[in-house]
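Weekly sync, protein design subgroup
Attendees: M.S., D.O., the rotation student, P.L. (late)

Item 1: inverse folding check
M.S. brought a backbone from last month's batch and wanted to see whether the design step gives back something sensible before we order anything. D.O. pointed out we never logged the input encoding, so this time it goes straight into the notes. Structure tokens as presented (364 positions):
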């Protein structure tokens, strides 16, 4: 239920923040115990959204409610609770632990601030440290903890304060892949029954942590829904790019997807049904890693001109016309901008989804 519509558990907000360089205008509803991931490019307004929910960034317009309590409202009887009175905690890339306190004392800080007796707060802190896998680290100060351990302490400190909602601002981005994977699994377990808004640039994080996904661009929502629906059926090329997918519009033509002189077929029944209606606007969706580059001509193959090459941690990303392909360094040997290269896709790696009617202009 939107803000102002009555008591509701969870987090409900309409955030409008106007700045000279960007206006953020986003509505978001998170049911109690649900995790909603927010994805978008740098500068899209993701951190501004979290800052507004936390009370760190004033609303220009709108309203924020937590568990039915309005904590900020700009119209009528204006309300603006300070961040510490909202029951919302924000976890970012920097754990922001108190350097002079031990891990136990950091975690006990919230309960102590809430009036809990020292002994009880320390006991609760030890219980939380055990839950995040740091049962033996209670006496250690942050300087003697690894980055991953500091993030675990930060999570324990946040949850020990019994927040009504938790905001995550890419807390894994500064960690190495192995540690990030461990912390991701820990977050999924410990936040399972907590109301969470998680900003991420990584579709893996969204799939692992969230029930729903909101994609924003230039301060506005482009698509929202269940994570699998958004990642599997991106509504626009922008959403597909955020999800790490190719989404290419064409038309259905005799059981295939067609664009110019290229025809693709898909193996799954749902895609075949969509492609059976000649002239229907279709989008072909596939992962860059599924594209075979330099393979001999085959069904589902075409020849593309290389526009540019981009180094990636796993190899090389090839930008060629309407397609992006990820290949290893060996497969990229000899490729250069301007060269023509065969490409192909296995039907098992392609699926078709409905596209806008305007896509018919792109078809064969």
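Designed sequence read out in the meeting:
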């Amino acid at each position: 239920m939107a803000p102002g519509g009555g008591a509701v558990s969870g987090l409900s907000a309409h955030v409008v923040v106007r700045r000279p360089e960007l206006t953020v205008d986003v509505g978001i509803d998170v049911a109690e115990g649900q995790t909603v991931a927010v994805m978008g490019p740098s500068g899209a307004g993701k951190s501004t959204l979290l800052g507004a929910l936390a009370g760190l960034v004033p609303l220009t317009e709108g309203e924020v409610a937590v568990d039915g309590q309005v904590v900020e409202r700009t119209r009528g009887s204006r309300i603006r609770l300070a961040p510490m009175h909202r029951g919302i905690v924000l976890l970012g890339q920097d754990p922001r632990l108190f350097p002079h306190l031990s891990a136990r004392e950091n975690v006990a800080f919230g309960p102590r601030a809430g009036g809990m007796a020292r002994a009880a707060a320390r006991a609760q802190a030890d219980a939380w440290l055990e839950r995040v896998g740091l049962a033996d680290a209670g006496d250690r100060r942050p300087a003697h903890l690894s980055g991953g351990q500091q993030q675990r302490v930060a999570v324990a400190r946040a949850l020990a304060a019994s927040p009504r909602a938790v905001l995550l601002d890419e807390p894994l981005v500064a960690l190495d892949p192995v540690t990030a994977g461990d912390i991701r699994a820990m977050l999924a377990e410990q936040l399972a029954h907590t109301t969470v808004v998680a900003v991420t640039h990584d579709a893996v994080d969204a799939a692992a942590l969230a029930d729903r996904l909101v994609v924003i661009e230039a301060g506005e929502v482009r698509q929202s829904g269940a994570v699998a629906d958004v990642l599997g059926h991106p509504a626009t090329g922008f959403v597909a790019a955020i999800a790490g997918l190719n989404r290419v519009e064409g038309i259905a033509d005799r059981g295939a997807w067609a664009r110019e002189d290229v025809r693709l077929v898909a193996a799954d029944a749902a895609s075949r049904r969509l492609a059976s209606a000649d002239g229907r606007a279709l989008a072909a969706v596939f992962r860059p890693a599924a594209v075979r580059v330099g393979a001999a001509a085959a069904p589902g193959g075409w020849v593309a001109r290389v526009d540019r090459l981009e180094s990636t941690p796993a190899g090389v990303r090839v930008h060629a016309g309407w397609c992006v392909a990820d290949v290893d360094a060996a497969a990229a040997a000899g490729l250069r901008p301007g060269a023509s290269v065969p490409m192909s896709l296995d039907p098992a790696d392609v699926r078709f989804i409905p596209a806008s009617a305007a896509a018919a202009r792109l078809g064969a």
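Discussion: The chain has two domains: 10-232, 245-354. Residues 118-131 form the longest helix (14 residues).
Action: P.L. to compare against the previous round before Friday.
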